[in-house]
Amino acid sequence: MILILLTLIQAIDARNSLARTPPMGWMSWELFRCDVDCSVDPTSCISESMYKAQTDSLSEDGYVKAGYTGIHMDDCWESKHPPRDPITQKLAPNATRFPSGLKALGDYMHQKGATFGLYTAESPTTCGGYPASANMEVLDAQTFAEWGVDYMKVDGCGPANYYKGGYKAMGAALEASGRDIVYSCSWPAYINGGNETKQPFAEFINDGCNLWRNYDDIQCNWASLAGIIEHWGKYGESLVPYAGPGHWHDMDMLLIGANCIAEPEERTQMAIWSISAAPLIMGNDLRNVSDASKAILLNTDAIAVSQDPLGQMGMRISQGDTTGQVWARNLANGDVAVALYNDGASKPIVPPFKNDTSTCSSDSSNQTWTTVTGGYYEACDGSGGDLGQFSNLTVAQAQKQCCSNSNCAGFSFMNGAGYWKANANCGITKAKDFSGYTRTDAIPLPDTSTLSITVNFNDPNINLYGEIDVYDIWEGKSLGTFTSSYTAKNVISHDTAFLILSKKK
Ligand code: GLA
Known about the structure:
- The protein is of the alpha/beta class.
- Helix content is 25%, strand content 24%.
- It contains 13 helices and 21 strands.
- The protein has an eight-stranded parallel beta sheet with strand order 7-6-5-4-3-2-1-8.
- A hairpin with a 5-residue loop joins strand 10 and strand 11.
């Protein structure tokens, strides 16, 4: 595999010398979204003070030193009224939330050793409805350069027929701006319906994109993360030839430390993202990260896999319901990084509850309902888990309606409106303004099953023969020398054993 891939990669060169390894940093979108109400949320609204606080944590808590240099502002920083400066036509930040302006904020990041990432879109407005850069590429790229921006996430939230010319124009404008600005293109995520075999990756690279979002936004729950891993697993062979120094596939933000997935799931994301040479951009609140999550994020061996100088993306090389998944990535020194992932496939997701309508009622004293605030239990199973939406109901009315439907496991609720769920198997999704009402007997028990997962060293994608040293990245120690294969025993559901295989010297 190594030789074939190298030939392909050499044929595709990045337009600039930026992002030679996958970008690392922190981004606001996952937890802070478009919260612009600073009177209600003074410490978590999209504002200068929130970005400064995140910059402080990034710098003081060891993230910058480990390589996580980017502070990436996402949507909703822009002034809406007026959308552009009436005289210069430049974009401007919201003056109340960013009183010092973005040049000063960028200077603050740079002083702390961080780099400045900003967001716009190749459409008249951003996905959040704020002014964006369609037809204004040259002026906007100059403005971003004047502010000291180092990285632009360029979304696309308008007519898709604009993207072909628009992303090319923005690539050229960023290049002509006189500043080195990494160019992150969301274009692929909005065309070809997620079919990676149809994507014109060479065109994205020729237009200057240093990385691109291919697929769905990550949401703060396991089902979303697992779905993205499955997408990369399914399309590995189509994706690998187009990743390399200066041009990467972006799997979206890390949920590690965002308090919405379990610790084994956090290890899995770190391992699969590193094997896949995906950017490591954290979506947590850096002021509130547990020690366990921090240890995963700052694991130097995992980061070394992600940032390996060969820049060759890895992929899933085998899978099976009872055998787990094996992912592998070739490293510059001839070692192979391997992730042995228990995706829980041996335990299919089925609605676990028997909705007995005679015992279900809206009376909260009868133990029928489990309530969560600041989120809700989400249904797995895509559209099969979704029973539609409602509005204009009280909680008691919604409970009563859910009780009368034997498929209804519960619902999410905000101001009288919400969504009915057929199961609760995807666990809690955090969402600040929502509550969740779930039938207690529909809440899934944790999956405690385990798998033993084997990697064969002579797999054509690994190609290691003789005595092989096996090093455990999570344990930080060698597990010994093995010939022909290694089996990680009792990998718990959703967890991943992360190993380095080296030929014994
Ligand atoms: C889109 C993008 C997200 C985020 C939002 C902002 O959904 O895919 O990553 O930037 O827009 O509105």
